[in-house]
Amino acid sequence: MTKTKTEPSKRAERISWLLVTPLTCVLGFFLLLPILTIVTVSFWNYNEWSFFPDFVLDNYAFHLTSAVTWATYLKTLKFMVLTWIFCAGIGFTVAYFLAFHVQSLPAQVALFMVCTIPFWTSNIIRMISWIPFLGRNGIANSSLIHLGIIDEPLEWLLYSDFAVVLAFVHLYALFMVVPIFNTMMRIDKSLIEAARDAGASGFQILTNVIIPLAKPGIMIGSIFVVTLVMGDFITVRHMSGGQSASVGRIISNEISLLQYPAAAASSVVLLCTVLLMIGVMMRFVDIRKEL
Prior knowledge:
mainly alpha; 14 helices; 75% helix
């Protein structure tokens, strides 16, 4: 009797392991193996023309004790915080309008698709499209001069930190809209009606009902924005005109100089920093309820 009872359970266990094996192989090959390779190379040594296996901590010591590294991290964190603030504000506003002010589901889907139209092109095209608009003789400066608001072109519109943050917000705002909209669509409308019947104002409903229930979506969008901004280097290079640095640019420069162990060490430090930030964010919200 015992044998006949355990055999089905063992068969089910084997089937479960068989089902997870392909996913495990994919994650192992495309995620764990590259990370292990980067961590291993980060301890290797290098000279002007090659790098070779070794176990040295010089790459980490130079990276962590350099004043340039800390200044670059602060600069990247500033970009990340400003981008997150604007993306969260835009994403929450757009999602709130679609979820609670558009009553028809087809209209919600249609308007949501309209929001995604700019994202049908590549990031490079969308980023470069700002250059003729923000340039010294671009549309923005020409319009402001024509309206009499300014007398001479604004130099800080392009190739500045302002341009970098503007491009980041344009590139990554949708990553905040989608998860917040998805979370808001799951909010039971009867809760809002109950709060309204109890005498709550619109602001009280927003702060005590909608925002707490939308926190998982806000947090998922924040994870996307934080990881994308922290690892980006093309946007910073093009929109700042080479005048601003980012952690991604440090890694890119080290790779271009064939300093692969140093680039690997920088990548490991960046990965740990991003994981630490995500870990802190996940302590405030259990996003597993949304997955």
